[in-house]
Amino acid sequence: MTTPDATPSSAPSPRVNLRTPEVMTQVQAQVESHYRSEIVDRLRANGGSITVAGVTVKLAKQFGFCYGVERAIDLAYAAAKVFHDRRLFILGEIIHNPEVNEQIHALGIRNLVGKSGAPDLDVLAVGDVVIVPAFGTDVETLARIKERGCQIVDTTCGDVMSVWKRVRQNANDDVISIIHGKARHEETKATASRAVHGGKGHYLVVLTLEETDLVCDYIRHGGDKAAFLKRFRGAYSEGFDPDIHLRRVGVANQTTMLRGETEEVQRRIKAAIVDRDGAENAQESFRFFDTICGATQERQDALIQMLAQPMDLLLVIGGYNSSNTSHLAELGEEIVPTYFIGNASRLGSREHIRHFDPQTRGEILTEHWLPAPPVTIGITAGASCPNNLIEETILRVFELHGVQRDALLLS
After folding, report:
1. pLDDT at 17
2. Which residue among 186, 187, 261, 391 is the active-site one?
3. Domain spanning 159-292: which CATH class is it, in words?
4. For residue 337, is the peptide bond before it cis, meaning its omega torsion is within 30 degrees of 0?
5. Hey, what CATH topology would domain 67-157 get?
6. Distance from CA of residue 355 to its chain's centroid?
């Protein structure tokens, strides 16, 4: 591998078409070999349900990889083929799934983001290839990469860019963007950077309805500005002043949030604006757009539909730092015993399971989790979970009951 000139350059790198038929034929073969599942394909063709030896597994109608994730992975694999003679880097994780990120690393793509959470851009040199993940990245980071003369492979999801368009418009119109999301999430940070477009605009990030109510109370009555800013430290733009910037607001969101919760954030903030300004004037002081990711919503809707059917427990598979996957687990927990697992290895036995606990932000051990047959187990997975991990979980469930892969293929 060649080592390019380390001198920064502002000259833009030429655009390269990675999605040529020749490259994509090779990419698709490689991606399928890593992530495809014969068992999942068979289960889907069978109406999403299979029963063997008194064990029934039901798969949600929508689960796993979405188009945006598939596109991001395809582009990363394509970059590794087309730019095989260059140094390749990625801004963090391609998606929030450890197994997929390990595969990306195995392609020779180095992660620029270390334990500090900030990308080390000083290692970049002219001609290096930098992959922007599906979440996108902030404006400043992107500009610095361009200044260093790097080739950028942008895999940002189109749904994320739709939110950017909205918050940029807010900035142009002197409307603050209240972003429903996780302030430290890559996507929300990328969106927030667009909310101060061209040196204009401000943003405030809210995660919970409790935080939303604090904002609503300030909109209605004002309050202790210092205490408000302390409470939301790290979640607002430089120079943000709630006494000034909460006069006109627009609600945006991280695309992987729960739709119902984002809609409630919108409803409460609008109600506060109406109480302060009156219904007629509120039309000028409040705006919102439906920017929940379509794939996220499809997976939530499919799970809700599946939960309406009788089942004994639910397994949710995916990366523990995946926002859309964690929300699937939240939906399940309201109805049935739900276990959020990273992969099949967490199913230790019929007596023990290790699963993610959102309260402790780590794995916990639960005993006596799996009822004896007859038992019905629902399975779903976040948009960043590949089918091979779903297959391994299905196989492990049946294996715990003495049923092997061949029996499933013959059923």
Report:
1. 84
2. 187
3. alpha beta
4. no
5. Rossmann fold (3.40.50)
6. 19
